[in-house]
Amino acid sequence: MTQIHTDRFEFVCPERGEAFEVDGEMRRALLASGCPVCGAPVSETAFVSLSSP
Ligand SMILES: [Zn+2]
Fold it and tell me: What residues does the ion ligand 1 have nearby, CB within 5 Å?
């Protein structure tokens, strides 16, 4: 499988403010499971698209 393009997002935790870059698949996982660092619930507003350079 070849991924030509992967969406990139910056995730900012709504609870503690830790931030890191994720791809679309990771974004869905965070929305489903919450923040992997502190366990806070994650909504779509916690993500900023990095699609533009
Ligand atoms: Zn967190």
Answer: 13, 15-16, 35, 37-38, 40
User: By residue range, what is the domain housing residue 19?
Assistant: 8-49
Measured in Å, residue 11 CA sits from the centre of ligand 1 at: 10
Is residue 23 included in any domain, yes or no? yes
Per-residue pLDDT of the chain (53 residues; tens, 9 = 90+): 565 667 899 999 999 999 999 999 999 999 999 999 999 999 999 999 997 66
The closest alpha carbon to 13, from 31, 24, 25, belongs to: 31
- For residue 50, what is the DSSP state? -
Domain count of the chain? 1
Query: Does 17 map to a domain?
Result: yes
